Each structure stands twice: as structure tokens, then as C-alpha cells.
Amino acid sequence: MNFCSQCAHPLVFQIPHGDDRPRYLCEACGAIHYQNPRIIAGTLPVWQDQVLLCKRAIHPRLGYWTLPAGFMENGETLREAAARETWEEAHAKVEVGEIYTLTSIPHINQVQILYLANLSAPEYSAGPESLEVELFREEQIPWNELAFPTIRNALRFYFADRRQGHFPLRHVDFDRS
Ligand SMILES: [Zn+2]
Fold first, then answer.
1. Which of 14, 52, 51 is nearest to 32 (CA)?
2. Residue 69 burial (CB < 10 Å; 0-12/13-18/19+)?
3. How far is the CA of 22 from the centre of ligand 1 (A)?
4. How far is the CA of 21 from the centre of ligand 1 (A)?
5. 128: Cβ contacts below 8 Å, ≥ 6 apart
6. Are 90 and 127 in contact (CB under 8 A)?
7. Which of 42-46, 120-124, 126-130, 172-176 has the lowest mean pLDDT?
8. Which contiguous run of DSSP H or E holds residue 79?
9. How far is Cα 22 from Cα 45, in angstroms, rounded to an integer?
10. Can you tell me the distance from the alpha carbon of 79 to that of 98, in angstroms, rounded to the nearest whole number?
11. What is the pLDDT of residues 143-165, one digit of tens each?
12. Cα 14 to averaged position of ligand 1 atoms, centre (Å)
């Protein structure tokens, strides 16, 4: 961040009076431009014994498989964000269930929340951010071609929990490295 979004003056990066960490400050108008973690919402969409994955058409990790998820927008609920991302990336309608994985990723300032979801029908297709969308049985999951560690975790949890028949909330804190 280089310039003030309120008055266009160049910003400095300093600890404001009474604060404990540096912020982007505007010395012209006094605005403090706080930056806070962003929320990624998505689903783990299930149809019978299969899970829906999307092959990414965008960077980062273009060509790798992921679960539908993306940045929450202002004015929507977390559940709406998860369903919207599933529609946008996979053109799939889902019944959004319980929150399943909650992951803090402090080194990139994100919190990722994935819901368990059921496909309303085995109907889906690639949205603009996906190259392909497919249903996978456990033995078909492309474990070496998954886009992110959070996705690998969610799928590992899911198939292990499915054998147990219950799906406790999986709350993971990633290391800061
Ligand atoms: Zn300013």
C-alpha cells in the first residue's frame, strides 16, 4: 500500500500512537489503513461416495485440483459465500451442511473455512476459474496433484471420518513458517 485511499497522499508504515504494531498511516489526513486477515469460504461437496474437485484454471497452482473456495464478499454470510463459490467454480448446487475444517494460515493472513455439503444432483461443470470439475472416489483422488495443504488435510479428514461415521470440526493452526 503506497497511497492514501482517502486523500492520495503517500503513506508511511509506523506504529500509531497507542497501538502495538506498524500500520499504514496517512500523515496528511490522519487515516490509519488497517489490514486484517481475509476469510476464504468453501465446501467439500459430496455426491454418494464421491467428492467434487475442481482443476484450477488460475494462478496460483494452475492445473492442480482443489475444493471450491474463495474470498468471502462484503454483505454475504459465510454459508452464502461457500455456496456461491461452489456455484462459480463448479456450477454445482449444494445443500451446505456443518462447518468442517477451520484453518488459520497466519503466514498468508487467511482463515479458511470449509463446510460439508451435499450436491443436490450429480450436475456440475467448469466455471471460469476451473479447467475441469470431476467427482472422485477415495481411491481416485489425485493426492499428488492437489493445490494446497489445506485441501489435502480436508480430504484426509473426510475419508477417515467417513469410516468412523461422524465428522467432528477439524480446527487446524498452520505454522507461521
Ligand atoms: Zn490521507
1. 14
2. buried
3. 16
4. 19
5. 57, 88
6. yes
7. 172-176
8. helix 78-90
9. 40
10. 9
11. 999 999 999 999 999 999 999 99
12. 14
